[in-house]
Every structure is written in C-alpha cells, then in structure tokens.
Design brief:
This protein has about 180 residues and is mainly beta. It has two domains: about 90 residues, Sandwich (Immunoglobulin-like), CATH 2.60.40; about 55 residues, no CATH class. Helix content is about 10%, strand content about 45%. It has one helix and 16 strands. Strands 2, 5, 6, 9, 10, 11, 12, 15 and 16 form a nine-stranded mixed beta sheet that branches. Strands 3-8-7 form a three-stranded antiparallel beta sheet, with no helix packed on it. A two-stranded antiparallel ribbon has the order 1-4. It is elongated and about 85 Å long. Keywords: Signal.
Length: about 180
C-alpha cells in the first residue's frame, strides 16, 4: 500500500476553499418571504396568530406594526414574537392594524405583504346579531341601514343592506350570521 502524504493537505485545502466559497455565496443571497402572513378578522379579546416563512430558514425575522419595528415581544401590547410567528394574545383597539414580517441578511432585507388585523364588532338590530369588521377606523354610533352620520366632512348615507362605509372610505362588511 502506497501513501502519499502531500495529497492530504491539498485535499483539506480544497474542501476549505469550497466551504468558504459556499459561505460567501450565502452572504450575497437576498432572503425571500415564501409564505406571507394572512389578513384576519377577530373579535375583541380573541387570539390572532400571524405566520411568515422565509428562505433561507435560518435568516433573522422581525415584525413591523403599522410601519414601526417591533423590538421583540411586547408585553404592554400583548404581542409575542417567536421567529416567524406573531401572536396577539387578546385583540384590542391598540393591536388592530397592519403587520409585516421582515427578513434580514447581510446582502439585504425583504418585507412581506402587509397583513391587516381587523376587529369584528358585534351588535344587535331588530333582534338580529350583526358583525362589522373595522380596521383602523373610527366608527360612529349609528344604526346599520340608517346611516346619516357626518364626520371628517364626509356624509355617509344610503349604504346597502350588507355594506357600510367607514370614516376612511374603506368598505367594511356587515353580516347577520354569527361567524365568529
């Protein structure tokens, strides 16, 4: 059996160079959001879970709330962040809004599509229970189907039986079925 001592260091050096090349290639890679967080409607006090999957999976993931970076979990808001998952323990008017996950690498960062967390408000009219989905909107105290409220120089009248306009001119849905 013949042993060549000079080949072992050369083989080790070759593997080392290939490993460095692979690491450098990773440094130039830009992350991608492969699964976007989904918008959701939840009742007051309900739990909301937003998920985000990024590639490569080891990349740093943070979250934004209404455009502002969340610095990890926020006990005051009742928000828990664990990698690609954001949990709102009890939805309230302070946690309603737009959420985005952000994936960061040395070569760059990418943000997900915003997911809107909307508050569903239940009320009764003529013996029926209705739900309104409100996202970052001020909703005046008016009866559905009899909307004659003026605010922010906008007069809202004559909404259809299943829709109403909110203060910021977004359509919000109204339904008589208890879907929550």
């Amino acid at each position: 059996m013949v042993t060549c001592r000079g080949e072992q260091p050369m083989l080790t050096l070759l593997w080392f160079l290939l490993a460095i090349a692979g690491c450098l290639a990773d440094l130039n890679e830009v992350p991608q959001v492969t699964v976007q967080p989904m918008s959701t409607v939840q009742k007051l006090g309900g739990t909301v879970i937003l998920g985000c999957v990024v590639e490569p999976p080891w990349v740093n993931v943070t979250w934004r709330f209404n455009g502002k970076e969340l610095n990890g979990s926020d006990d005051a808001l009742g928000v828990l962040i664990t990698r690609g998952t954001l949990v709102i323990a009890a939805l309230n008017n302070h946690t309603v809004g737009r959420y985005q996950c952000v994936a960061r690498m040395p070569a760059g960062a990418v943000a997900s599509v915003p997911a809107t967390v909307t508050l569903a408000i239940a009320f009764f009219h003529n013996g029926l229970k209705y739900f309104l989905s409100l996202a970052n909107s001020f909703f005046p105290s008016c009866l559905l189907f009899q909307v004659r409220c003026a605010f922010q120089r906008v007069c809202l009248q004559g909404a259809s039986r299943r829709e109403i306009l909110s203060a910021n001119d977004q359509r919000v849905s109204a339904d008589s079925e208890d879907a929550l």
